[in-house]
Amino acid sequence: MVLKGVGAAFSALGSIAVVGGLLILIFIDVYKTRAIIRYGKFTSGIVVKFYSDYRGNGSVEYTYEVKGTKYVGTSTVNNFRPNKGHLLEGLVLPVKYDIHEVQNAYMIVTPGDFKINHISFPDSLNWMRQYVN
Questions:
Q1: 28 pLDDT tier (thresholds 50, 70, 90)
Q2: CA-to-CA distance for 132 and 82, rounded, in angstroms?
Q3: DSSP string computed for 5-26
Q4: Cα–Cα distance between 60 and 52 in angstroms, integer?
Q5: How far apart are CA 47 and CA 24, in angstroms?
Q6: Helix count (H) and strand count (E) of the chain?
Q7: Angle 41-115-97 (CA atoms, 0-180°, nearest 5)?
Q8: Is the pTM of this model over 0.85?
């Protein structure tokens, strides 16, 4: 009986640790996003590869350069049809990065991303609208 009580205590402790860890990861993500918003600058990046998971969520791997140093990043691409992701490969798109931590960056891909960042969506990318859900 004592072992059952100890096992339950460890189980509860493990659950608390998992929840705590998730909260820390969320806090870090929010902090990084706020840093980009507050201390962000723009540069150009090139989409290297589009990835999608089994649920249809997409992301892009991209390269960008700041002060002569090349960086590689990944960004989530919301609401873009995964079977058309290959059309993004090779595109030059804006990247917003944190001036204090240059590797903290994200690529602006969809019309919604442009709107959130207060950038006019270029006419040259209007073809993309038909693939955004």
A1: very low
A2: 10
A3: HHHHHHHHHHHHHHHHHHHHHH
A4: 9
A5: 30
A6: 2, 5
A7: 20
A8: no
